[in-house]
Each structure stands twice: as C-alpha cells, then as structure tokens.
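In response to reviewer comment 3 from the previous cycle, which asked for concrete evidence that the modeling workflow produces usable outputs, we include below a single protein chain processed end to end. The sequence was submitted unchanged, and the resulting structure tokens are shown without manual editing.
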Amino acid sequence: MNAPQTVAAPRLVERINLFDLQRQKSRLGADLHRRMDAVLAHGQFVLGPEVTELENCLAAYAAVPHAIGVSSGRDALMIALMAMGVSDGDAVFVPAFTFAATAGAVVGVGATPIFVDVDAATFNMDAEDLDRAMGEVAAAGRLRPAVVMPVDLYGLPADYQRLSDVAARHGATLLADAAQSFGGVGPGGTVGALAPISATSFYPTKPLGCYGDGGAILTTDDDLAERVRMIRSHGRSGAGDEATVLGLTGRLDTLQAAVLLSKLEVFADELERRRAIARRYDAELADIVTVPTVPEGYLSSLALYTVRFARRDDLRTALDERGVGTGLFYRLALHQHPAFKDFDGRSLPVSEMLANEVVSLPIHADMRDDEVDHVISAVREAVEALG
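The workflow returned the following structure tokens.
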C-alpha cells in the first residue's frame, strides 16, 4: 500500500497550505490513472461497475447493508430527506454552527430548519438545547417535529445515543449529516452505522475525497435504501423509464467512483497519519489555545483540526505572515446568514461565540514532520507576540 510517509524531509522552504491534494495525487498517481483509464475504456460513465464496487466497499467499511453513491453531499442530504418523506409542514432540527448546505437541504425539500445550539467543547449539537427546541416547536403547534439532523463537525461523530433518546421522546427520527466524518468512530460503531440513515460527502478536501463533487447515503433500512436508489435516478425503479416517485439527477459518476476506490485503499493509513499529527498539535498547543475535544470512545476523521482563540483574526494574520495557511469554518452561525433570516428566533449563544473564535490549522496525510513542527512553532510565536 502507498502509505503516507512520516519521516522528516529537508528544511522547510515553502508555504504550508491548509489543504494539499497534489502530494496525494503524486503518491497515488499510477493507481489513479489505471482506474480512470479503465473507465474511459469501458465507457460506462454513469453508474458503471466502479460505482457498484465502491458502494460495496463503503458498506463493508461502515458495517451497514446499504451504501448508495450520489452526486454530492448536499444531494445526499436532500435525497435522504425525500426518502424519509420530509416535506412542507415538517420541522428538521439542525445545529446552528455548521456549513450552509445543512439547512439549505432542509429548505430544498420544503421543510423548515430549526436551529439548535452546540456544545462548546465538541462543537456538535447540544442534546439539552435540542430537547428545548423540540418542546418549543411542539408547543407552537405549527410544525411537526419530524427529523433530528446532527452534524459531525470537523469529523467528530455527534453524541447519537443522547440525541436519539431526545428525538424518540418527541416522535422524530434521526438523519446523520456525516459530510465531514466518514472514517470516524463513535460508541455505537463506525460513521454510517451510528444513525438509521447517514449522508456523507466526497468533496475533494474531505478525508476521503474525489476529484469533483460526490457523496453517499448509508443506511440499515432496506426500504429507505430502495427509495434512495429511485430518487437519485429521476424516481425510476430498475431500468425502466417510469417515474415511481419524484426524483432528482443525483447519481455518482463512474470516474469519481474510480478515484474513490484508489483512495479507499490507503484511507486507514491516512486517517492514522492525521490522528498522529493531531496528537502532536494537542500536546504542543493545549496550553496556549483551546484544542479540539474528542470524548472517550470516539475517533475523529479530522477533516479539520480546529482550535479556539479569543483573538482569532489577529492569530490568522500572524500565522499568514509566518507562512502558515489557515481556514475559517465558520465565520457565521446559520441563523446569521441572510439566506436563513426567516428561520431565526432562538437564542444560540454558543454558536455565535464559536463563529468568532474558531480557526483551522493545516492537517493532511502528506504533511511532513518538519511542517508540523513549523506550524506548532508559528502558533506559539504568534500567540506570544499577541500577548
């Protein structure tokens, strides 16, 4: 296997970017070309054999009976909601601190997103605030509490056991937004098996990413899986042209499946390298910034390594001057986006606080040890300079 290298390399001379896909492409180049050439040769560019092979591999990895490749992470959420029968009049409870696609998918199927605050340590949906939000919606009587949709932010699985208990008390079902967390582990198993249905993304910068848009839906429910397969292909069942249900053009293309099959071969090694880097960051930075919390019994896929610092913007500027790229995920809580102003109304103080404090540091499987050292030194120098 082409595992990422951990040995120190020559003296650092280049800027360290938040993401670097070119090194992985070089490392896997021969296998990537072989698999993509095979697709070009057989010409089955939509739902070709590589898609079926990938779906089988994803299902086996997550230990679930069904994995269905789709066209993007957002489409995965929309198709899953449609398969669950969510529509107008339904309330879908989503964390207020996440990417806009989470709430956008809910609005896209005609339902109403209800924003729930998050835990300051894990960044994931707060079960106590979820209980309050669901009680408020039930008391108002305008919407049906239908779905709880936690997000595994930055790659850390949410507390699905507690969230599931709350959802069940209010008569709602669970859908996992696992866009950032494929490869993560929670007390109930691997991401994909932590909720009755889960949606993930294969956007290029994800831990398992393709070379375009892509996603997958994983489920333990046979009926849901069949509806997902129909919806992703215009609502058709089998090879016929009759639309049984309303559907989308939501299929994963075969070239992207070929890329993902190549990357899946080294995925476990790459996850371990990410976790090794995170352990270094934790050990060297915990005394000067708030490092991520990973509760006992959990493993994060570390899509992003995100710290908190009160003078976040000043820290980003100082790191940029020291040749370290950073990311800001997310500068606004969802209720602060103009697109979702009509769904505002709840107090969400933790989400607003995090939006002003979080900053993500470089982490990927091909980071050299000297680059990790440089990031650590740069953060320490920058914090000290900021006083």
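The chain has two domains: 29-264, 266-386. We consider this sufficient to address the reviewer's concern, and the full set will be provided in the supplementary archive.
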